[in-house]
């Protein structure tokens, strides 16, 4: 499980009317309990210095138990179980998984029930990166980040995020644990790969910023992840503790730029060790040097820092489940995502807060940041959604058309020896991953296909994370015909396909990506994308057209 207020950086002014904010800061029970009818009314945008900040007074009226609860973002079951959890632990948010996302109507109903149970508006989040990390079965399916990186079109990244965000907001989800801001420079990376926009920090930075803007325009809080950068590891932090050997200079040049300019509401920490940034051996999630020293102080980020899932092994190797949440808060994290046991973690943090091991200043600061994020995304103005309308607001025809366009813009032609492409007026033998879907898409695009290699003019091999060696071996078996290899997942499959006449990457096996591949191969559409990562001996920026 992967997770994570103004620019990874700079705070945006609180949207609150001066008179209402002032009265809230000094009012009685309603301010203490956080009821929505006592919340400030947002009327206009201005600078933070132009009006009083209602948040410190609001925080001061919360009990320690309520403050500690705001730090937690657990999973949730049924509406009744969630209601009981909220009332007992005062949690500041929850995260949805597919079991919470059966239909648009039921999801909207669950969101409304959870919000009704909470005295303070809740952040309801999900991991909806699109591409290979998609938790929400009823939203429009878009290709993932590397397709967008290949297109180089910031307008596509923004539009795809805005469309996804609008569909999430329709069912009451107001925070997305996306986009992935990692710079994937390691082809063997088992956990990031095509979730990244690419291997060029400038490209990743501009695409991350565009996606963040899209989510925010839809009213959804965006979360850049995984700080300080998870793009150069061969270990999966779900099952182990990766060690990244980047120097401070390398980190600043390679990993930092996307986070520094993202403009995200929140940044998610990574369960990785970077010894040259912190020599303690602690993962970044538990490192004050990383979270406070680098993210807060060096990059100037003033939003919410959220941990990646605390159920992952990368953060549990060194410390117990009671120790981890306390150390994370003291390192600078504001929110604790998916504790293995909410009762255990909550009591540990509550005890630390009451004993002074977590200072009141640190606790109040974390809660204030969370409340400002909620206020900035409009949650104090109301959170109710309409379950009856939710179904008509997701998976729309307009968004399907956008997904097809985005996918087409990302298809990259890397090699085309002898102009074997496009395939029009040729009979094609299709084999490999999703060959039946690819064959059908080609026929729909006017290309003739055959079930016999011997009868074909051209062979098309499709791969889906097969690995470079396996792909090369499969390609050699087709050597009697000019062969096109199309990677539907990681483009690194193409690295050793030396005998192929043409190489193509879609970075996605979604239906829009397969349809886009067929249009490019058939010649109905002209390829325009460029490699966002080095592949098959070609540098970033390589891309052919015809």
TrEMBL record:
Domain named Glycoside hydrolase family 3 N-terminal: residues: 64-373
Pfam family, one: Glyco_hydro_3
Keyword Hydrolase: yes
EC number: 3.2.1.52
Organism for this UniProt entry: Actinomadura gamaensis
MF GO annotations: hydrolase activity, acting on glycosyl bonds
Protein name, as recorded: beta-N-acetylhexosaminidase
InterPro entries: GH (IPR017853), Glyco_hydro_3_C_sf (IPR036881), Glyco_hydro_3_N (IPR001764), Glyco_hydro_3_N_sf (IPR036962), NagZ_Beta-hexosaminidase (IPR050226)
Top-level EC class: hydrolase
Keywords: Glycosidase, Hydrolase
PROSITE patterns: PROKAR_LIPOPROTEIN
Record family assignment: Belongs to the glycosyl hydrolase 3 family.
Substrates-to-products reaction catalysed: Hydrolysis of terminal non-reducing N-acetyl-D-hexosamine residues in N-acetyl-beta-D-hexosaminides
Membrane-spanning parts: none
């Amino acid at each position: 499980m992967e997770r994570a207020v103004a620019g990874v950086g700079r705070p945006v002014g609180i949207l609150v009317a001066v008179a209402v904010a002032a009265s809230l800061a000094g009012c009685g029970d309603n301010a203490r309990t956080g009821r929505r009818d006592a919340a400030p009314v947002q009327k206009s945008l201005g600078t933070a210095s132009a009006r009083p900040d209602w948040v410190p007074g609001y925080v001061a009226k919360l009990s320690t138990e309520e403050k500690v609860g705001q730090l937690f973002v657990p999973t949730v079951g049924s509406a009744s179980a969630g209601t009981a959890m909220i009332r007992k632990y005062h949690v500041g948010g929850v995260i949805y998984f597919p079991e919470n996302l059966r239909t648009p109507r039921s999801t909207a109903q669950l969101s409304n029930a959870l919000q009704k149970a909470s005295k303070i508006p809740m952040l309801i989040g999900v991991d909806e990166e699109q591409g290979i990390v998609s938790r929400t079965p009823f939203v429009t399916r878009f290709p993932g980040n590397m397709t967008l990186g290949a297109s180089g079109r910031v307008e596509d990244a923004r539009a795809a995020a805005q469309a996804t965000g609008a569909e999430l907001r329709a069912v009451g989800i107001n925070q997305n644990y996306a986009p992935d801001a990692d710079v994937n420079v390691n082809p063997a990376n088992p956990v990031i790969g095509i979730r990244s926009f690419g291997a060029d920090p400038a490209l990743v930075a501009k695409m991350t910023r565009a996606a963040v803007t899209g989510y925010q325009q839809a009213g959804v809080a965006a979360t850049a992840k995984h700080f300080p950068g998870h793009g150069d590891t061969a270990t999966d932090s779900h099952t182990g503790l990766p060690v990244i050997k980047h120097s401070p200079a390398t980190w600043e040049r390679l990993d930092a730029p996307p986070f520094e300019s993202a403009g995200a509401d929140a940044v998610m920490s990574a369960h990785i060790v970077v010894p040259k940034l912190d020599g303690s051996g602690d993962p970044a999630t538990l490192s004050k040097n990383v979270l406070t020293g680098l993210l807060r102080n060096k990059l100037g980020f003033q939003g919410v820092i959220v941990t990646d899932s605390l159920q992952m092994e990368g953060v549990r190797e060194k410390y117990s489940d009671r120790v981890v949440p306390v150390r994370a808060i003291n390192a600078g994290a504001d929110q604790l995502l998916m504790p293995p046991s909410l009762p255990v973690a909550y009591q540990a943090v509550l005890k630390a807060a009451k004993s002074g091991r977590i200072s009141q200043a640190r606790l109040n600061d974390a809660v204030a940041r969370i409340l400002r994020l909620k206020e900035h995304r409009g949650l104090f103005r109301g959170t109710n959604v309409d379950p009856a309308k939710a179904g008509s607001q997701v998976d729309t025809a307009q968004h399907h058309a956008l997904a097809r366009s985005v996918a087409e813009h990302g298809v990259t032609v890397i090699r085309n020896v002898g102009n074997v492409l496009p395939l029009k007026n040729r009979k094609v033998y299709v084999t490999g991953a999703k060959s039946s879907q690819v064959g059908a898409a080609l026929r729909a695009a006017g290309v003739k296909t055959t079930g016999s290699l011997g009868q074909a003019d051209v062979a098309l091999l499709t791969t889906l994370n097969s690995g470079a060696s396996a792909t090369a071996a499969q390609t050699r078996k087709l050597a009697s015909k000019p062969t096109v290899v199309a990677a539907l997942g990681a483009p690194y499959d193409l690295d050793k396909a030396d005998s192929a006449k043409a190489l193509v990457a879609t970075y996605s096996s979604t239906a829009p990506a397969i349809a886009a591949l067929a249009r490019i191969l058939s010649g109905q559409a002209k390829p325009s994308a460029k490699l966002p990562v080095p592949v098959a001996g070609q540098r970033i920026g390589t891309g052919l057209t015809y």
